[in-house]
Amino acid sequence: MRNLQETHLNRARASLRQALSWYGYLRKSGQLSSNPELAGLLKPELEALNSTLNKLDSNVIRIAAFGLVSRGKSAVLNALLGEKILQTGPLNGVTQWPRSVRWQPGGKVLVELIDTPGLDEIEGESRADMARGVVHQADLILFVVSGDITRTEYQALLELRQAQKPLILVFNKIDLYPDTDQGAIYQNLQQLGAGHFEAKPLLPDEIVMVAAEPAPMEVRVEWPDGRVSYEWETPPPQVDELKEIILNILNREGRSLLALNALIQARDAETAIAQKTIDLREQEAEDIIWQFTKYKALAVMLNPIAFLDILGGTVADLALIRALARLYGLPMTSYEAGKILKTILFSSGGLLLGELGSSFILGLSKSTAAITSGDNPSNITAFAGSAIAQAGIAGYGAYSVGKAAQVYLEKGCTWGQLGASSVIQEILSQVDQNTILYRLRQELGIKY
């Protein structure tokens, strides 16, 4: 298992280094320096890629606690640490800003615990937004509740689920509930915590009951001289089960979690780069598409040989895809261009396959007319009619390929041999059914 985790880490590092080397090449080649507007737009995403790679190399796993106010997020983290480092108190909103503290459970794995403001703080929207931003850096999320989930908590939980991060639902303050109520609430949390009503109940290591800061209890004390007094004592925190679950997850799949989160961040950054680039160069792309549309239509119309029509049209489509990739500065090889063209052909409902078929039939008619034109001048008219019809179909096909290629260049920039999306899929295909990553694989809808 450890070897597999190291493989996942190495694959993630290779993916990020490949992405950075590509965009580094763009900078060195002058494609970014010659376009300062584009360079400025892409700066946050390029910095994010560098930061993500540095986080991978540091091997620090980040666990962030989220929840509404007064649910005991800070108390849970303090209990895990074994000392009261993070401030707690009876007032709502004690935690004003995200705070982090290092934790090294068992002396092996280095963890950064992140405390966040309540997601429902009154007049605290900016702090809530900041808390949601922390989730993108987290490798594992603790969502802390203290009873049945409210509507606000349920909505917050759904938002966190959309971040595609493993999540443990922590039922805090169980010391305030009788055993029967604890059981009923636990069953409800299993169903609602799944993220939507049709999802499967949460697994045993995805929900845990704790008492991070138990309420003081009145204790009857009998003295040797027969006196009886009553004192208030605070029971120790009940977080051993949560600590054990976290340690099991970290030992079993911690490095894989680290790799997966880095890849998700890289995928999002690369997708944003593609979107910004495509938006900025929309008019230039349109001009290129129309240019290739006219060239392909003219070449097909004038060429009298059927087979060369199809071959030339395919070459023109591939050249168009490569031209768009160069314009956008997005990674693209001849092999990937061919895969995109194949995908476009199948995804367009056979429209472009119809173009090939029509081109072949019309090309044959055109070839026959060209061959026999010397015997019968009227065949020149037939040649011209077939050529014009074929040119129209070819031109429309080129335009369709160009517009579809824009979409695939935007969505497909993270695929390829070491693309972030490819490595994400590779990692999730290798996880065991008993892991928390397997649940994430199901949520992402990836089937194998």
Describe this structure in words.
It is a single chain. The protein is an alpha/beta fold. Helix content is 60%, strand content 9%. The chain has helices at 2-28, 36-58, 73-81, 125-134, 151-161, 179-192, 240-280, 282-302, 306-328, 334-347, 351-372, 378-411, 420-429, 436-443, and strands at 61-66, 99-103, 111-115, 140-145, 167-171, 207-209, 217-222, 228-233. The protein has a six-stranded mixed sheet, sandwiched between helices. Strands 7-8 form a two-stranded antiparallel ribbon.
List keywords for this structure.
6-stranded mixed β-sheet, 60% helix, elongated, alpha/beta, 448 residues, two-stranded antiparallel ribbon
Helix vs. strand class: alpha/beta
Q: Give start-end ranges of low-pLDDT stretches.
A: 347-374
Strand order of the main beta sheet, please?
2-3-1-4-5-6
Tell me the distance between the termini: 20 Å
**Quaternary arrangement of the chains shown?**
single chain
Helix content: 55-70%
Sequence-ordered SSE layout with sheet pairings:
Layout: H1 2-28, H2 36-58, E1 61-66, H3 73-81, E2 99-103, E3 111-115, H4 125-134, E4 140-145, H5 151-161, E5 167-171, H6 179-192, E6 207-209, E7 217-222, E8 228-233, H7 240-280, H8 282-302, H9 306-328, H10 334-347, H11 351-372, H12 378-411, H13 420-429, H14 436-443
Parallel strand pairs: 1-3, 1-4, 4-5, 5-6
Antiparallel strand pairs: 2-3, 7-8
Summarize the structure.
This protein is of the alpha/beta class and 448 residues long. 60% of the residues lie in helices and 9% in strands. The protein is elongated, with a radius of gyration of 30 Å.
